[in-house]
User: Fold these one by one.
Assistant:
Number 1:
Amino acid sequence: MKAAVATRYGLDALALRDVAKPMPKAGEVLVAVHAAAVGRTDCGFLAPHPALLGRLIFGWTRPGRPILGMDFAGTVEALGKGVSGFKPGDRVFGMLGWRALGAHAEYVCVREDAYIATMPQGLVFAEAVVGEGAFYAWNSLKALNVKAGDKILIYGASGAIGTAAVQLAKIFGAHVTAVAATKHMALMRALGAERAIDYTRDRFTRIGETFDGLLDAVGKTTYLRCRRLLKPGAVFAGTDMGPWGQTLLLTLWCWTTGSKRVTVAMPRPLPGFAQFLKQHLEAGDFRAVIDRRYPLDKIREAYEYVQTGQKTGIVVIDVRTE
Ligand SMILES: NC(=O)c1ccc[n+]([C@@H]2O[C@H](COP(=O)([O-])OP(=O)(O)OC[C@H]3O[C@@H](n4cnc5c(N)ncnc54)[C@H](OP(=O)(O)O)[C@@H]3O)[C@@H](O)[C@H]2O)c1
């Protein structure tokens, strides 16, 4: 099968190669991949000179998984022993954990009990590779303890995590203020935000309101900038270390002092995640925001674009044409 293989760190090392088609083990489903996505997790794995911490996490001399890719959508090709929830020909979608990956290939094996579900009715495969952003958005909103009626501010709401966070916060019943650049204002409202603030024109920190939770979905603002926006007891959550590692350092400080004020949401398992996404993709209150699409043989161009940090929503890889 064809796969995008990373034999060492750096985008230069990523090449389309012929590799052995995987065989499903007991409890696994073999999926013929139609659509995948390139996300910031993939970029993190491939980063050219990862710091010591990165090497400990991602692999010492090269990415621990040579085939990257978290999100997949496609058709079931074969079943491993004992699989009962799927059959060959089923249209499925889902997300591989960061320790598994492998969706940048014509075939991938997925555990039946992992994040996999049959495709939402009425969607094409490209519209279903939304897992990464939704997963981190959900974990972050859990860290904020979002409840119906809460007022939530989402900073950097135009990326994969941000667009998912706006929609999930609405599903959880929150009142959403989204902060993004001018060109994303209409999108913020279309996704359900009650209020959209253009960070290139207005100081969102001076709006004179307070919130029950604040999510920095893109790692570009700081707790110190935002603290006056937080109600007593409200949490500031980041998806990233933040400028100069501030959000991570404050998170460590909060852990040691027992405070919950600042946190970087850790990727924790979300049982029923794929089924939850399916339900909301079908209901239409959650949708993919697709920026660009690339065929598998142009995946390096997709990485180059995602690495700019300028994408809106997701970047899709068309592994097969539907
Ligand atoms: N916790 C984890 O394990 C984990 C996993 C995945 C990703 N992440 C991190 O989470 C962050 C977001 O990931 P993502 O995939 O959602 O990112 P993304 O899709 O690449 O986000 C890009 C968006 O951010 C906007 N943006 C750029 N600079 C901004 C700024 N200064 N203020 C506000 N918006 C800005 C861009 O629009 P404009 O430039 O037009 O404003 C663009 O729409 C990244 O830092 C990533 O490394 C963490």
Number 2:
Amino acid sequence: MSLLSNYLSQDQFCVLFEYLTPSQSRFPVKAQLAGFPVCVTLADRVHSDNDAAPLEISKLYPENVEKLIHYSGKGRDIEDFVQFLHQAKSQGQGNLLLLTGDKLKNHQFGDDGAPRTRYLESINAVMEAKRHGGFYIGVALNPFKYTESEKEAQYLKLHKKIKAGADYVITQLGYDLSALQEAQDFLKRNQYSQKMLACVMPLTLERAQFILKKKVAGIVIHPHLVSVLKQEKKEGNESHVYKRCALQILICKHLGFSGVHLSACHKPEEQELLERYIEEYRNLDLPACMSLWNTLWKTQTGKEFIPPEVNNQAKPFPAKNILKYKYLSFIHGAFFESKVSKSIGKIVFKSLLWKAPLVSKFILKAELLAKHIAVACESCGQCRLADTLYVCPETCPKGLANGPCGGTHLDRCEFGDRECIHSVKVRLAETVNQTHVLKENLIPAVPIEVRGTSSWQNWFDADTKEFSKAP
Ligand code: SF4
């Protein structure tokens, strides 16, 4: 059992110090912060696509320091992850945080000859790590979502992550305490025993401006926060940054969080300042902490933490998309799920004729022709449409099938060029009463060697291709 799992199972509030992995400078690691036990957590390619591997960097820290290794699925597939698991095991690293990750800085769309960048979904990584056994598995949640569909999509995916085997949850960085409270309520309401940690960071003016300028995926910084930080800088009140961070940590503790994932607080002098304010406020109860937090952020309306452009008007779901769902669902049932179709298909595809390269090519072309116009099929070879309400996962730039990444902004995709397909799926699921499909069906990863083959053939050729799922 790892120390981290001990802390969480014994409700010992802990602090995970996050370090990025590009720099060679190592900061001394404290054994505790204001009496809370400390772990080091090593991020995966946050600074650049070419950051050093967290497993390598972990060797630079003393053995007795408890570590949490991040693994991000960007630009990777399931084989890469299996290799990583073997390495982690041989190094004795059992604490993992499995993420899909934000977009690769050098993301390729695959439209100019270069292969399309693939992303290993966190859910598939959790399933694989669970299958291997011996890991303490963390997953992420972004609770800072402000349309019904993007928020619902996050929580539906969290249900799946927990079903896949997640042991604990770490939230995205954010300052909206009501969203953090909602995340805690979700665990309680669903009687999940998983523990949750909140990501916090001392928010300086420079960091807020950096996040806004770089449009860091999934982080919400309201203009009000920037104007408070600007004014504080002018007045020389920058210590308020650490006061608020201390308060946020204590508020999270009051709300039932099991710890915090602390970003950008590496230097000893920053940690000392934070520690000083935690000690100063340690005995305040929740209302007193909240009141001081609101005073320091100069809140007036209570809306100072949510995006100013939020519009809660429900969008009507287009009738043509409902018809399309019904039509494709009927075709799937009739041609691929019924007993008769399965028996006929198996007999037909048993013939060696279908394995001939020319015939295989023909089927692949026929499938692409039939499905490309309807759903923008890309011949992934393992059709998942029945589990994604006939919205093709390949139309998500990251190719995610199980649910959204954390990067949406008011339903817009992290890539900025479309509505997130998972928000669309949520709205469709609610309209056709199929939300359980998005909550329960764990969709396996597509192995690379299967891409570019016919899912029709794979579906019926059950002896060799058991993974195939739909038409
Ligand atoms: S469509 Fe949604 S899940 Fe896919 S990259 Fe865009 S925001 Fe992320």
